[in-house]
TrEMBL record:
Its cofactor is Mg(2+). Its EC number is 2.5.1.75. The keyword Magnesium applies. SUPFAM superfamilies: P-loop containing nucleoside triphosphate hydrolases. GO terms for biological process: tRNA modification. The gene is miaA. HAMAP family: IPP_trans (MF_00185). Keywords: ATP-binding, Magnesium, Nucleotide-binding, Transferase, tRNA processing. This is tRNA dimethylallyltransferase. Substrate binds at residues 11-16. Monomer. The lineage of its organism: Bacteria, Bacillati, Bacillota, Bacilli, Lactobacillales.
Length: 307
C-alpha cells in the first residue's frame, strides 16, 4: 500500500512552512488539498504558495482551473490518485497539504462519492437550489444538519451542490446520505499530521492573516473576480471573496465585509477541527507553542516510513 503524508489544520498555524521542511527531509512532493488554490489568478485570498516560495519543491493542483470552471471532490480524488502513483513510482513521498476534511477523507478512503443508487430527480435538486437562493447556503446546510448531522459535518456550507445531493438522496430513498458511506476502506497507508494551537491564538493569527491579505491587495483581487462574473461561479463562493461582493454592490461597508471574512474564517476553522477529531485518525502537534516539536514530528514520520 502506497504511503501518503498529509498535513492539515486551520489557517495560519504553520502548515506551509512545515510541509517544505518535511518535503526536503523526505524527498516529498506536495499536492494541494485546497479546492480554491486550483484557480488561476486567485492568489491572495487562497493563501497560495507562489513559485518563488516553493524552494524547488514540486507542487501540484495549483493553478489548474480557470475561475469560471467547476472543481469537484471527484476531480480532486482522480487527479490526486494519479499524482500519488507518479510520485511514488519515482521514489518520492506524496504529501497532501491543506484543504477540507472531506476532500482528504475522500482521497484516503474509498468513499462512495456519487450516492447514485437511485434515479436522480432534477425537480428535487432544483427545489433545494431554489431554497438556497431564497434563504442562503447556511440555511440549506442547517436543514441538512437537522436531518443528517453526520453528512453535514462532512460537507462545507459553501458546497451547495453536495448539500443538495445529500438532501436529494434522503428525499428520494429515505436513507441518510451518511449511511451510504459506513464502510471505510483505506486506499493508502496514510500518516496525517494535524497542526493546532490554543483557540485564542488561532483566532488572533487568522485575524492577522486577513489583515495581511488586505495589505497584499485582496480587495482588488476579489473585485476582479466579481467584475468577471464570479458571484455566479464556484470560485466566487470561497471565503475572502464572497464576503466582499456585497461591499462592491454598495450593500455593506468595507469594514463590515472585512469583519465578515474574519468571522467566516474563524467559524470554518472551528468546524474543520471538530470534523477532523471525529472522522479520521490525526496526530496532533502544536508547533506555535513548541517549535522544537518539529524534531519529534520528523522522527515520527521517519519511523512510519520505515514500517
Amino acid at each position: 500500500m502506497k504511503k501518503v503524508l498529509a498535513i492539515i489544520g486551520p489557517t495560519a498555524v504553520g502548515k506551509t512552512a512545515l510541509s517544505l521542511e518535511l518535503a526536503k527531509q523526505f524527498h516529498g512532493e506536495i499536492i494541494s488539498g485546497d479546492s480554491m488554490q486550483v484557480y488561476r489568478g486567485l492568489n491572495i485570498g487562497t493563501a497560495k504558495i507562489m513559485p518563488a516560495e516553493r524552494e524547488n519543491i514540486p507542487h501540484y493542483l495549483i493553478d489548474i482551473r480557470n475561475i469560471d470552471e467547476r472543481y469537484s471532490v471527484a476531480d480532486f480524488v482522480a487527479e490526486s490518485q494519479r499524482l500519488i502513483d507518479e510520485i511514488s513510482n519515482r521514489g518520492g513521498l506524496p504529501m497532501v497539504v491543506g484543504g477540507t476534511g472531506f476532500y482528504l477523507k475522500a482521497l484516503l478512503y474509498d468513499l462512495n462519492l456519487g450516492g447514485d443508487h437511485f434515479e436522480p430527480s432534477e425537480k428535487v435538486r432544483n427545489k433545494w437550489h431554489d431554497y438556497a437562493a431564497q434563504h442562503g447556503q447556511q440555511a440549506l446546510w442547517d436543514h441538512l444538519n437537522q436531518i443528517d448531522p453526520d453528512a453535514a459535518q462532512n460537507i462545507p456550507v459553501t458546497n451547495e451542490r453536495r448539500v443538495v445531493r445529500a438532501l436529494e438522496v434522503y428525499e428520494r430513498t429515505g436513507t441518510l446520505f451518511s449511511k451510504q458511506q459506513t464502510v471505510l476502506k483505506p486506499r493508502y497507508d496514510a500518516y496525517v499530521i494535524g497542526l493546532n494551537t490554543d483557540r485564542s491564538k488561532v483566532y488572533e493569527r487568522i485575524n492577522k492573516r486577513v489583515d495581511q491579505m488586505l495589505d497584499a491587495g485582496l480587495v482588488d483581487e476579489a473585485r476582479r473576480l466579481y467584475e468577471a462574473g464570479g458571484e455566479q461561479w464556484q470560485s466566487g463562493k470561497g471565503i475572502g471573496y464572497r464576503e466582499l461582493f456585497p461591499y462592491f454592490k454598495g450593500e455593506i461597508s468595507k469594514d463590515n465585509a472585512v469583519e465578515k471574512i474574519k468571522q467566516d474564517t474563524r467559524h470554518y476553522a472551528k468546524r474543520q477541527l471538530t470534523w477532523f477529531r471525529h472522522q479520521i485518525p490525526v496526530h496532533w502537534y502544536d508547533i506555535i507553542a513548541d517549535p522544537g516539536i518539529k524534531r519529534e514530528i520528523g522522527t515520527s514520520v521517519s519511523e512510519w516510513l520505515e514500517k
